[in-house]
Amino acid sequence: MNRSLGGHLRCCVFAILLVGVNDGLAAERNQGKSWATTKLSVPRVGAPGFKRLKSAATGIDFQNLLGNERSIRNRNLLSGSGVAAGDIDNDGWCDLYFCGLDNENKLYRNLGGWKFVDITNEAKVGCAGQDSTAAAFADVDGDGDLDLLVNSLGGGTRLFRNDTGLSFTEVTKKAGLGSSAGSMSMTLADIENDGDLDLYVANFHPTTIKDSPNTRIRIRMVNNRPTVASVNGVDANSPELKGRFEISENRNVLEYGEPDFLFINDGSGNFSKTDYLKRFLDENANELEALPLGWGLAARFTDVNRDGFQDLYVCNDLFTPDRFWINDGTGRFKAIPKLALRNTSTFSMGVDFSDIDRDGDWDFFVVDMLSRDHDMRHLQVSELIDTNEPQSLLLSRPQFSRNTLQVNRGDNTFAEIAQYSNVEASEWSWGPIFLDVDLDGNEDILVTNGQLRDFQNADMTAQIDAEKNAKGLTQSQILKLMSRFPDLRTPNVAFRNNGDGTFADFSEAWGFDQPGISQGMALADLDNDGDMDVVMNNLLETAGVYQNQANTPRVLVRLAKRALHSGIGASIVITQNGVEQRQEIICAGRYLSSDQTARMFGVLDEPLDITIAWPSGVTQKIERANPNHAYTISEPATNPARITSKPSPIPLFSDVSDLIAHKHMDRPFEDFRRQLLIPIKYSQPGPGVGWIDLNSDGWDDLLIGNGAGGRLAVFLNQKNGTFEPSRSKILLRTNWDQTMALPVYNIDGQNSLLVGVSNYESGSTQLPVAALYDFKKQKTSAFRLELDGSTGAMCQADLNGDGTLEMFIGGRIVPGHYPNPPDSVLVTRDNKGMRTVHRWEGLGMVQGALFSNLYGDHRPELIVAQHWGGIRVFTWEGNGFSPTEITTRLGLEKMTGWWNGVATGDFNKDGKIDLIATNWGLNWRTKPSSSNPNRIYYGDLFGSGQTTPIEANLIEGKWKPARRLGIVRAALPPITEFVSTFEEMGQVTVMDALGEEFERAKVLEAQEFRSGIFLNSSTGKMQFTPLPEEAQWSPSFGVVVEDFNGDGELDLFLAQNFFGTNPEYSRCDSGRGLLLIGTGGGKFQTADARESGIYIYGEQRACAVSDFNQDGRMDLVVGQNSEATKLYLNKQGTPGLRVKLNGSIQNPDAIGSIVTASNLTREIQSGSGYWTHNSTRLVFSQEKPIGDIHVTWPSGKRMSYSVPPNARSVQLNRDGTLQHTK
């Protein structure tokens, strides 16, 4: 290989850094332009993945050493060390620098051909005698060569100026970087766009006092609060300890980390440390209340919002939260709003950014310590974070003990989808890196992991604590005990990007599954073939050097900026066949490590475009670039057009929630105290919402259910686009949740409201099933039935065509006996009142229900959505009220899940009614399927008198308990007869754990968690199609079907999110209300919030539609549990024809009618979705003249009506007449 082609070439006034080339291939200069290219020698034979090269072949024999006793005395050392990659002598070959703990650091010069030589002594960069953590190569003084920065525990950051390429001089003190901090990772970027590299250092502590053997902490009470008084005899208010310790709410001692450092470069490589509180502000741009004292492990500059200024993400360990800072354009940073980032990892080790879905926005991935193995998840128990923010609060940002993948929604808010994407677990992880391993244009994920001692081993912790508490131990005895923690030498992980938002484990297939303790990792093209090789620093093992084996087309891009640094912070976009790939040039920002400043893209073997967005705002484009070439590009001296942002779309809806100014109230209830093993809370079900013309004035009024401690809210439509709250004396506060409201009519046609009553929290059998609100008489009355479950969904239909409505009342849950299936009932109304005409014993946990005419006759079917059950369908084949279940006939018998809501519509316009059902989604800890379902065992186990649920996972053909020993033991103390350790709990089956009690346990299964539509096919079977991926990112509850944009195709809205998960699980907060636009044929595409105008971040429940201002466009209301109700006015949809049916005295809205117009079939329903009553006025698109409307009335009578061409609204009468308004 010819090394002489490397180095500096000058083209006009631009410095062009050329990539070294293979086999004497010539470099091309583009005369008069600011780029040069070199043809790459791409291997002809190979496959995606890596080959680990032996040290004897490469000459890289570095090992990161750490003595046993030191590793016990100071756990901070176990976080390991990193590696830096860069061409220090500008010879075109990337060199490597490794950090060591008990041994000095080493610098290896790349000779080409995978040969390296140790030049540490010559370069004078060994840093002997310090615990080196991180390293980075960066041209901090702007002289054209790479200088070296080295971090250490207790030594802060040291700077070595590059003198000759092979020799360095330490200038730490002169440069203003000296400190005694416990410095971990660093990141460099030009945060002020003044042409030089600034430095951010994440600090930990040189040692953790609390973890040291025989640490003595004295507590005293101050103002009735426990306070740390001294540590090892040193006053807690002394300068070295002030602010370091506090007592948590749970009375645990918390030890905080050190403040991070931000250093500003003056342009010559000299730095000044900033006043942190002057540079970093809260989300409202106010000064922080206190200096953050995090356990900093990693930091990364990236221009997240693409405004040309580098933003900052900081990974903090333990209970200290991550920090996400947005650059305000002046080099100051503002905290990202709570609603923009909903959650973070707990033990955040490292972070990387990528545009994983190729939508042009930066997504990011943070790694934690969750194992992929079922047995290990039981054995490894992380402490619950004392300072973790409550999951139930809208403006909280809880920490989850797993990896997090944050997907940018396009407006710099993020949806966390690691569980959906299959990347939530990668063992005790350290450094993640996005890299397109298989060169398919989608960036994959590499993760290093492993730990010398598994301090999460719950069994070992229990043994050691027992011995320590049994007798006083010397320090040496404690050290010996601590050494018993087993090591955790786990295989590194590679996740392949499937291109659909999910990833698959390709660790073994790509040769990346080497077991060990791998920590710092960096990318570099070490053989100049245009793909990125991988280097990692391993603890107590030779460094890993992995040759990339890819043999498909690629492009390598390097940047050379006119100012001091090589395009750090610039964005590179490769465009080919209309598809964009985007990467950014970074400096350091890896876990303890730093890449070579080059970026690789997998491409097709055809021309492509390269666009550079420089931090200065200048954009530069190279058209019809060649694949299998390396491009070195300099920022032009001129100022081509800057990037202009695309104009924002005009949103379909406008938020007019201030018209009602309503906030749902729901008194907290501790579900997990009553049933320890229940997976989610059932005490936060509402509110239900409904549009009902209460005062019969022809305008829809709005009703919103209450939680315990609240009152039913009624907003009366003022006919001018505004509302007034009803002040009726019967709207009193209740001590129970009200589920949903339906209008009911007596024999005189007078309407009242039937409002469901939940007895879930009280468990009382004395509460009624529902309450009847008679506004005309200003009184309420109780509606009582024998129902063992708490009232949930309700719906109405005229089942026998007699003009009166029957009502289904679904049992949602049996209080204190989850998941026992409750009963449900069908009631009818006559001159004696309401009475039960059918009871479904043990029907199941009904969450949503509606009546719909699936067969097109005059007798509607009942459709229910259940938890631990399916979408079940019942019909009436005779003249009575005895139903026949047709679930199996429709092909739905295996579709069991955690279904929440159900609605109907003719989605493919074939004249048959289809279904849409909301489910739990796939962004959950399990993804059930027919071959690997979720299962729950339950019953009165061990004679406790209580119903105990035990969730189970199918592991290698055996059903094993999902929950850990601690919580299972608390719920079922007798289980310790069969299981005594955490390790055993991970290994046993449910049968083993329960012994003879297993025979008494009942079982339920769930096989489908995806929300989707069920098309009513010509075969008589319902064909299931999942909704787009965004619909699976969070549980959905309410669902409405409507043509919101007026294009003649039915659209969908889903109400999303659920926060009430048990403390071991993550809350579900990745939705914000999802509008899906119908594209025809039963297909839908996602409308993002900028298009829809819908931004709802809380726990959405019911949603309902009405054209409340009668402008021919359907508006939307969405209820949130314990938060503001959101009202949206449809302003941009094309107005349609308003249609009202005039029914019978006891069914004045003609509930159950089927209406067809413009080739679209709709139904008028009372009760649907999830706890919803939609307006009974329909709106049909008028993009094409409607002509005739066809109606099948509840009696079965079919009639047609001719619509005048200029009609704006019509009323259809049973006698065949029509009234209209223009």
Outline of this structure?
Mean pLDDT is 93; it is low at 1-27. 6% of the residues lie in helices and 38% in strands.
- As residue ranges, the low-confidence spans are 1-27
Terminal CA distance: 83 Å
Helical content stands at under 10%
Shape annotation? globular
Topology, number of strands? 92
Q: Which structural class matches the secondary elements? A: mainly beta
Report the major sheet. Answer: 5 strands, mixed
Percent of residues in β-strands: 35-45%
The strand order across the widest sheet is 3-4-50-43-47
Compute the number of helices: 14
Average pLDDT number: 93
Gyration radius, in Å: 33 Å
Describe the structure.
The protein is mainly beta. The strands form 24 sheets. The chain has a 5-stranded mixed β-sheet with strand order 3-4-50-43-47, with no helix packed on it. The radius of gyration is 33 Å and the shape is globular. Mean pLDDT is 93; it is low at 1-27.
What topology does this entry show?
Elements: E1 8-11, E2 14-17, E3 27-29, E4 35-39, E5 50-52, H1 55-58, H2 68-73, E6 83-86, E7 95-98, E8 106-112, E9 115-118, H3 120-123, E10 131-138, E11 147-153, E12 156-162, E13 168-170, H4 172-175, E14 183-189, E15 198-203, E16 217-222, E17 225-231, E18 234-235, E19 245-247, E20 253-255, E21 261-265, E22 271-273, H5 276-279, E23 280-281, E24 295-302, E25 311-317, E26 323-327, E27 333-335, E28 344-345, E29 351-354, E30 363-366, H6 374-379, E31 399-400, E32 404-408, E33 414-416, H7 418-421, E34 429-435, E35 444-449, H8 458-470, H9 475-482, E36 490-491, E37 493-497, E38 503-505, E39 515-516, E40 518-524, E41 533-538, E42 544-548, E43 554-560, E44 571-576, E45 579-584, E46 587-588, E47 599-602, E48 608-613, E49 619-625, E50 629-634, E51 653-655, H10 671-674, E52 689-692, E53 701-704, E54 713-717, E55 723-725, E56 738-745, E57 751-757, E58 770-774, E59 779-783, E60 790-797, E61 806-813, E62 824-830, E63 833-840, E64 845-852, E65 861-869, E66 871-875, E67 884-885, E68 897-898, E69 901-905, E70 914-918, ...
Parallel strand pairs: 23-27, 28-31, 43-50, 52-87, 84-91
Antiparallel strand pairs: 1-2, 3-4, 4-50, 5-42, 6-7, 7-8, 8-9, 10-11, 11-12, 12-13, 14-15, 14-46, 15-21, 16-17, 17-18, 19-20, 21-22, 24-25, 25-26, 26-27, 29-30, 30-32, 32-33, 34-35, 35-37, 36-39, 37-38, 40-41, 41-42, 43-47, 44-45, 44-48, 48-49, 51-83, 52-53, 53-54, 54-55, 56-57, 57-58, 58-59, ...
